[in-house]
Design brief:
Acyl_CoA_acyltransferase, Acetyltransferase_Butenolide, 27% strand, Aminopeptidase, transferase, acyltransferase activity, transferring groups other than amino-acyl groups, 4 strands, alpha+beta, 28% helix, 4 helices
Length: 120
């Protein structure tokens, strides 16, 4: 939860986070000593649709290639463990979209746009 906040990701209650973590298919956590400095997760239905979420690097550790390391590990899992027909998506913040492009992700607009809302 601390890394989410430090990296500027949207906040969730601890109860919601615990339920969400149970749906993780694959996760990567980068540690330096006793500090978590980066993370990323893959969630999905197990067969057709998957989403990369919670990509975060501690601001004081940014610029060291940690985001690239996280994506490399996630994509290793995607390309070796998921069905070839699986659809993997993510919502990219700018300028992180440039990193995701290096891993083969393309913008879907104008054909489709990502949309989101909170439950309440």
């Amino acid at each position: 939860m601390q890394l989410r906040a430090a990296a500027g990701l949207s906040p969730f209650s601890e109860e919601a986070a615990a339920k969400g973590l149970a749906g993780t298919i694959f996760a990567i956590v980068l540690e330096q000593g006793d500090r978590v400095v980066g993370m990323g997760r893959l969630i999905g239905d197990g067969g057709c649709f998957f989403q990369i979420v919670d990509i975060a690097v501690n601001p004081s550790d940014q610029g060291l290639g940690l985001g690239k390391t996280i994506m490399r590990e996630l994509m290793e899992f995607v390309t070796t463990q998921l069905p070839a027909s699986a659809y993997v998506s993510l919502i990219a913040d700018v300028p992180a979209n440039q990193l995701y492009k290096k891993f083969g992700f393309v913008e879907t607009a104008p054909r489709s746009l990502g949309m989101a809302r909170r439950a309440r």
